[in-house]
Design brief:
Layout: E1 15-21, H1 27-41, E2 47-52, E3 66-70, H2 81-88, E4 92-93, H3 98-105, H4 107-116, H5 135-142
Parallel strand pairs: 1-2, 1-3, 3-4
């Protein structure tokens, strides 16, 4: 099908389920992202916006007539855990599969993988604690500009 979806085709299209919120520190950003996506998609599709408050799938999702848009930021939403649950439930969803999601949460490792595939990546420095960041070392390694 090409072009815009006619209004009578809405009944034939799967319902779009947007999962937003989450229990992590990026909850409010996720809720805002979910609302924006729901507002946009609801112009042409049947949309259901769900505010997740726990790290688990809602019990009433259907692999038969729904497509899931996970809009959970950070842990659970971007670390592969949610994607694994969606796959186990047989649900169709937008975004990366579990392995790619897990990899992308580990930025250094992701940069190594894509660099190994021939994609140019910017140089960087990694640290787990901001107190480990030494400004002089960063400037020496990456430059002041």
């Amino acid at each position: 099908m090409t072009g815009s979806l006619a209004m009578n085709d809405r009944a034939e299209s799967p319902e779009i389920v947007i999962l937003s919120g989450g229990a992590g520190p990026e909850r409010e950003v996720s809720l805002a992202s979910g609302r924006c996506l729901a507002d946009s998609l609801s112009l042409q599709f049947s949309v259901r916006l769900i505010d997740l408050v726990e790290n688990r799938l809602p019990a009433d999702l259907s692999a038969v007539n729904q497509v899931v848009f996970p809009i959970i930021h950070g842990e659970f939403g971007e670390d592969g855990e949610l994607q694994a649950l969606l796959c186990e439930a047989g649900l169709e969803f937008a975004g990366s599969q579990e392995a790619a999601s897990r990899l992308c949460m580990r930025k250094d490792e992701a940069k190594q993988v894509v660099s190994g595939a021939g994609v140019r990546v910017c140089p960087g420095i990694s640290f787990n604690d901001p107190r480990d960041c030494k400004v002089d070392e960063v400037i020496d390694r990456l430059g002041a500009d």
